Amino acid sequence: MDAEIKILPEPRALGTIIRKLRESSQAFKLKDLAYFLLDNPESVLLKVMPRVKEGSTEPLKTFSQCKACTYASMNRDEVVAHALTHHLTDYYDVKEVEVEPPKGNFNCVAKCGLSGVLLGPPNIHEFNSVVREMIRTKYPNMSEADYRARIEMVRDPESIEEWRKGATKKTLYFPKGAEEGAAGLTREQAESDFKRNILDNLVTTPKTLMITAAAALKSESRPFLFAVRDALAAERRAPVSMLFALRGAFHHHKMQFFRANDPRGQEFVVARELKEFDAAHAIPELANMAKFIEENPCRTKAEICKGDAEAEKHLAWLVSTGHVVSFTNGVFSAVEKHPKYGPQWLKPKKAPAAPAPAEAVAPEAAAPEPEAPAPEPAPAPEPETPVAEPEASSSEPAPPPPPAESTPNS
Fold it and tell me: Which of 5, 97, 266, 318 could cross-link to 231 by cystine, CB 3.0-4.6 Å?
């Protein structure tokens, strides 16, 4: 099928995401939100526009779509069959009523060769309706010709009498809202009434098809189904269309975007306005915490607050006011043009350097300890100290816990 398929967020799912972003102070990866939608076909809206190749004389193919559930196909008969199967009972009440046993002499009855159900004599008026109902309810993937080939004729009186006793109940269809005592309809009569009075208002032929991915993947139109699968697979490899739609929606709702680490880093969105912290007009506890986060990016709350409840309140205030970036993986960084994100910003503790072997150090390069006395001549000299002093750990201590009576005040 030659068509242009755009991948968009489903409006209700998009509304849910926007509401969650507004309720949160965290920064979310834009690509994670795109894949969150793509992982749920109900949250993906497809905009399908059929097109004709240049120079082709074939007419533009159109879709038929069910308004009730958005099911669509390029074959109208498939949509009509879908409507009869899934939406007939939306307009008719189905009731099972008691009837008189069939009268007359019957020489044989038809028997389903697959289930053993007695269908009735082939010469009664309702026989074809019974066969089609069996196919619809029990064997929907079997053609009527194939099913009829499995029907057996039995002539023993016991089977005929068994069918007669079981035929005292009949399924009838009553239009919803009909007056009490209205005559019921058989399945075939109800379908004819449905096609005549309801179908034209239920099945439409749109120029541009709007359908969720979940509904599109149920279509029986194979060219359309394959085109949808290919479009979704391509979008999962590179969610260009979904990201473009999300950016537009989030910009419309005044949300803020930034890229982490550098201009080509991962893109994030946050509902809070981010602004750098002014330490000159803040209480010392907040200033110390903001400075620690700036010098030690991508630290967790436990590393920043050290379990201090008052420090946790200060951190929450800095995040809620947009002075600190809170990422969804639980780490915090200072607000800057490209906030730092990722494990590369964690400063590992360096282990002290091991002393070099005595024989590897040249005699003239060895420096004696300042407080040690001059070495005495001896047959076997003592091992010389290495030139390199052990490196100090680069980890910085956390800021002192703020006093209990302090309150955030910038």
Answer: 5
Q: Which two tokens stand for residue 372?
A: 């040690």
Where b means 16+ CB within 10 Å and e means fewer, 264-273 reads eeeebbbbbe
- By DSSP bridging, strand 3-9 and strand 44-50 are antiparallel
What does the block give as tokens for 8? 């968009």
Q: Per residue of the chain (410 residues), what is the pLDDT tens digit?
A: 678 899 999 999 999 999 999 999 999 999 999 999 999 999 999 999 877 666 655 656 788 999 999 999 888 999 999 999 899 999 999 998 888 888 888 889 999 999 999 998 998 888 888 898 899 888 988 999 999 999 999 999 899 889 988 888 888 999 998 887 788 898 889 999 999 999 999 999 998 999 999 999 998 888 889 999 999 999 999 999 999 999 999 999 999 999 999 999 999 999 999 999 988 888 999 999 999 999 999 999 999 999 999 999 999 999 999 999 999 999 999 999 999 999 988 876 555 554 555 444 444 444 444 444 444 444 444 444 443 443 433 344 444 444 444 344 43
Q: Based on C-alpha coordinates, what's the Rg of the chain?
A: 38
Is the Cβ–Cβ distance between 333 and 327 less than 8 Å? yes
Residue 45: strand pairing partners: 8, 212
Q: What are the distances in angstroms from CA 397 to CA 18, 57, 288, 304, 394? A: 39, 76, 12, 10, 10
- How does 215-239 read in b/e, with b if 16+ C-beta sit within 10 Å? bbebbebeebbebbeebbeebeeeb
Residues 6+ apart with CB under 8 A from 251: 257
- pTM metric for this prediction: 0.69
Q: Is the dihedral of CA 116, 117, 123, 128 positive or negative?
A: negative
